[in-house]
Amino acid sequence: MNKPYYAVIFTNRQSEDLEGYGKMAETMESLTKKQLGYLSFESAKNELGIAISYWETIEDIKNWKANLDHPEAKDKNKCYSWYKARICKVERDYEFGD
Amino acid sequence: MNKPYYAVIFTNRQSEDLEGYGKMAETMESLTKKQLGYLSFESAKNELGIAISYWETIEDIKNWKANLDHPEAKDKNKCYSWYKARICKVERDYEFGD
């Protein structure tokens, strides 16, 4: 790792009302990946969903968050019965395997 | 949030050789939850597995990592074909729902 980077950990439980979820998720993904400073994305989901996006700077995260208030992404709140978002500074990383 | 806390994001792909995985996972969980400074744990798994543990201080993470080299947890490496671990400082969090 050359320098610190940032992560947004988004842990969530989906609500039962999933109308519009597919389109909302697609819009969110598309908005995220073309956002300045975006590095990568990881997710997995069972009862609990975890989605983590990685960013170059904290400013990039602020700009991304502002963009997520875009009208096309407005359904995001009603699709979750619970979520917790954490903004993190990645201080160190290490990798094994290929 | 009262003060900063820390997260270890462990993203992984399981190997095909899962002999000993169940016992190893159980040992890891037990060692983790009784470790000083442990706060909470979240995980989800599809093709990609994501396991996140939260800690009071970075020192607690160092002590935990030393404990994971315990002989009973020695199978952990052969159970993953790939993993990436990231040590993070959680700078801000917010929650929605119940």
Task: Characterize this entry briefly.
The structure is a homodimer. Chain A has helices at about 20-35, 60-65; strands at about 5-15, 40-45, 50-55, 80-95. With about 100 residues, chain A is α+β, with helices and mostly antiparallel strands.
Write the layout of secondary structure elements.
The structure is a homodimer of 98-residue chains.
Chain A (H helix, E strand, L loop, with lengths): L4 E10 L6 H13 L4 E8 L3 E7 L2 H10 L12 E18 L1
Antiparallel strand pairs in A: 1-3, 1-4, 2-3
Describe the 3D structure:
Chain A is of the alpha+beta class and 98 residues long. The first copy, chain A, has helices spanning 21-33, 58-67; strands at residues 5-14, 38-45, 49-55, 80-97. In chain A, a hairpin with a 3-residue loop joins strand 2 and strand 3 (49-55). Chain A binds chain B through residues 7, 9, 11, 13, 42-46, 48-50, 52, 58, 77, 80-98, and chain B through 7, 9, 11, 13, 42-46, 48-50, 52, 58, 77, 80-98. Strand 4 (80-97) of chain A pairs antiparallel with strand 4 (80-97) of chain B, so a sheet runs across the interface.
Main features:
98 residues, globular, alpha+beta, homodimer, Alpha-Beta Plaits
